[in-house]
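Hey, I was hoping to borrow your eyes for a little while. I've dropped the whole record in just underneath, so have a look:

——
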Amino acid sequence: MNSSDPQKNIGSPDRKRLVCLAVFLSILFCLLIIRFYQIQIVEGEKWTRVALSQHQYIATEPFMRGSFYSNTAIKEGHPGGEQPFVIDVPKFHLYIDPDSIPESAKGKMAGALFPLIGVFSETQEKKLREEFYRKSRSRKLAAWLDREARVKIENWWNDFAKKEKIVRNALYFVSDYKRSYPFGTLLGSVLHTVQEEKDPQTHQCLPTGGLEMLFNSYLKGKEGKRLIVRSPSHPLDTGKILEDPENGADIYLTINHYLQAIAESELDKGVQAAGALGGWAIMMDPYTGEILALAQVPSFNPARYADYFNDPSLQEHTRVKAVSDCFEPGSIFKAITIAICLKANEELALKGKPPIFTRDEKIATSNGWFPGRCTPLKDGRTHNFLNLEMAIQKSSNIYMARLIQRLIEAMGDEWYQKAIIDIFGFGKKTGIELPAENMGLVPTPGRLHPNGKLEWSLPTPYSLAIGHNILVNSIQMVRAYAIFANGGFDVQPHLVRKIVKTRPDGTQQIIADNTNYRAAKQVLNPSIVKQIIRGMKYVTKEGGTSKRADIMGYTEVGKSGTAEKIIDGKYSKDHNISSFLGFAPAKNPRFVLMVSLDDPEKKFIPGVGKHQMGGVCASPVFREIAALSLQYLGVSPDDPYGYPPGDPRRDPKRADWMNEVQQLKELYEKWNAR
């Protein structure tokens, strides 16, 4: 049998084909090696990310917006714990993954879930049922659920998913935070709120106004990052924290929640009793400028913010009227007039010139005609002669205008206008931390109104003397009286004590600190302040215009004012802003308090007087707020015998200021005998 070599049996064409095949396989293998190198080495990071994205993803971790806290350092012995006006509380949004839910289970799942999330109407149910049948991995069913609702839903879901063989993360929650108000509407107009829907890009809250808007840059936080693993059995709301969220800064206010509650409650009673459209009250520490209470009626309800902005009749309640609204102050400005005239006396004395008046001078006040006026000024009743203390007690328009007539003759218009601005800050913003502050208007000699008429004409000084022809906001007026209360020092009104940022590691950063601020710039001589305080002490006593402001058991200093509202460009005889502004106690006052009522009912009360006057309708509100506040602050009564006739605690011989009142009464009757 013959044997032969196999290679010899392979023809030349076959050999070439084998060689080509070997070369092709070698090249293909090399290409695979190159591709493998490209994927594993060159593009390794890219494909790792792609692979990981199919099994895990980075989710954002919500942050807490900064909170607002009450001033609990207001009195000794007060509970020192932090008391929030507004905080962020944990809430949850409910989502489903429709693609992970079997078609046969969707209807049954929806029917069981809807009652748990408070869906009962057919319209709501129909709309949400459609979400189960959308081609999607994430559909939102409910928002802002509390922890109790979440636990209830999770307990139901665990049993339902197991029974229906549905993956666990076909239903999941997303954590979030929502504004909460422990005191409800308290301080609502000042705080405001944030919209329910956040910015879709930044996930930051959208403030509606007030402190929320002004301090938004401090209150905002920064989202964290969480690593989520994609797995049918892995909950989508758990995972590893990669970056802690950074919460917003907390703001500690000067306002105390007890004093704020007192002010709002008593103001609301006063508005109703006066038949007024509304009102506001401001309480401030005269030495530190801290606003202790800032009440407004009607107020702004943060929980119903959309109603206020969608209803034109409610929009005015979204602003803080004590800051944004200006008005003619009326007779509460007369203390400013006296202070400026006493300041002129001081400057004239330095020049060796006689004063324009003296405190005890007997000044004729029966003639109300003044240069440039078409009609004479009038007082509530005719007074033949008055001195300084009588004029303040009786709130004489003619006396004030007569002093200003002398001042203009001695110092000039420009000096008078400059004193109003430089000493008391009228015509300038106070700088209080609230948006939309109105600086008001002090007329300027030589400047024209938009209508082409001069702001300052010949009769202007006599109008200014009694609080007309000038526009102020209430914070400006409170600051002016604080200068009287603290001995003549200018003071900066403010709402923020400090701003504190807590870092993720627990350490704190003090961003702003006003806790050590005290009024330091002297603008009035203490001797001037003493004369004004002495004169205003008569206002709330027998013979004064504001007996209803007398705080039983305490001394007080103040002045009422009633200004006609400007309606359709004209002064209205039927509509007023009625106010009382003062401080208590008279010596070392604890606070300055202003109460203003918008358009109180116009009527006459027998034995009392015109109801719309500030001394009648606003004074009782001042008295009640002040009395309750002094008691809360632990201030001991400094006039324990100063009670009205018929009260067993009354002792006229020992009561404060009774002798002075009687002496002034006798002198007044002597000068004005009929």
